[in-house]
């Protein structure tokens, strides 16, 4: 069995997340940004609601920590123009990563056009400015076949990561969903179209990380464990990682 990479190695893959209140949460976001710089190095990104992007940008200037925000969140059913306006504002405020929920409900109803249409328009305005993570909300996708088909639909030019979940749907990331996305990512890599993976939603323990580690390393190899290709989105994992890290 492959062994878990040390806790500090996970910290650099972490999208440290605070998605509780869309307004009035400045103190908590300030605290999040403080915690983003740890004694073992910085997390990969903080992930906050659009209204806090400017605050996070100011607090993390020159840190190398990416500023991620969410769009079409969490339901994935906003009008396209509304999503584009929201993304445009976030970019102007300093977002460097956009986690956008794809219209998975419409897709499940047979509308295969909306997912690529949204991602292509978001990619247009993010080009050269921000990375895109496409959120599939895998916990609400009924079958493995549909999960993989949706992942293929999300594999658009300009989309850097497939992301499992919003963390708001009751069911977040699962080993089954991660396995589905990893299979698609392996096929994409073999076709010369490499993309990254973000596992998010309910990731709270090192046991979960161990499980995901084994799924990923078998298919995508150890080289996948770097912030350019793998992120863990979590609001309640950093303390466990810090507690498990060697002191000194
Ligand atoms: O994007 C990340 C998720 O919203 C985090 O979910 P969580 O609060 O269950 O860790």
UniProtKB/TrEMBL annotation:
Pathway: Carbohydrate degradation; 2-deoxy-D-ribose 1-phosphate degradation; D-glyceraldehyde 3-phosphate and acetaldehyde from 2-deoxy-alpha-D-ribose 1-phosphate: step 2/2. It catalyses: 2-deoxy-D-ribose 5-phosphate = D-glyceraldehyde 3-phosphate + acetaldehyde. GO terms for molecular function: deoxyribose-phosphate aldolase activity. Its EC number is 4.1.2.4. It holds the Pfam family DeoC. One of its GO terms (biological process) is carbohydrate catabolic process. The keyword tRNA processing does not apply. SUPFAM superfamilies: Aldolase (SSF51569). It comes from the Bacteria. SMART domains: DeoC. Keywords: Lyase, Schiff base. It is an enzyme of class 4 (lyase). One of its GO terms (cellular component) is cytoplasm. Belongs to the DeoC/FbaB aldolase family. DeoC type 2 subfamily. This is Deoxyribose-phosphate aldolase. It comes from Acidiferrobacter thiooxydans. The lineage of its organism: Bacteria, Pseudomonadati, Pseudomonadota, Gammaproteobacteria, Acidiferrobacterales.
């Amino acid at each position: 069995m492959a062994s878990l990479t040390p806790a500090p190695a996970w910290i650099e893959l972490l999208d440290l997340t605070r998605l509780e209140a869309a307004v009035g949460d400045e103190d908590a976001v300030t605290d999040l940004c403080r915690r983003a710089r740890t004694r073992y190095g910085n997390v990969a990104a903080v992930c906050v609601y659009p209204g806090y992007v400017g605050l996070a940008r100011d607090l993390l200037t020159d840190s190398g920590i990416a500023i991620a925000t969410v769009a079409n969140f969490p339901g994935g059913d906003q009008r396209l123009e509304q999503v584009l306006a929201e993304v445009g504002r976030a970019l102007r405020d300093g977002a460097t990563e956009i986690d956008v929920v794809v219209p998975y409900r419409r897709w499940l109803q047979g509308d295969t056009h909306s997912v690529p249409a949204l991602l292509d328009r978001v990619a247009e305005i993010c080009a050269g400015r921000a990375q895109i993570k496409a959120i599939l909300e895998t916990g609400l996708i009924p079958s493995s076949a549909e999960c993989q088909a949706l992942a293929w639909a999300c594999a658009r030019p300009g989309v850097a990561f497939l992301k499992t979940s919003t963390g708001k749907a009751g069911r977040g990331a699962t080993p089954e969903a991660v396995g589905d996305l990893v299979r698609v990512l392996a096929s994409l890599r073999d076709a010369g179209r490499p993309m990254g993976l973000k596992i998010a939603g309910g990731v709270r323990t090192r046991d979960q990380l161990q499980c995901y580690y084994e799924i990923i390393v078998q298919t995508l190899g150890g080289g996948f464990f770097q912030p350019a290709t793998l992120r863990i989105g979590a609001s309640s994992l950093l303390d466990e990682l810090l507690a498990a890290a060697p002191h000194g």
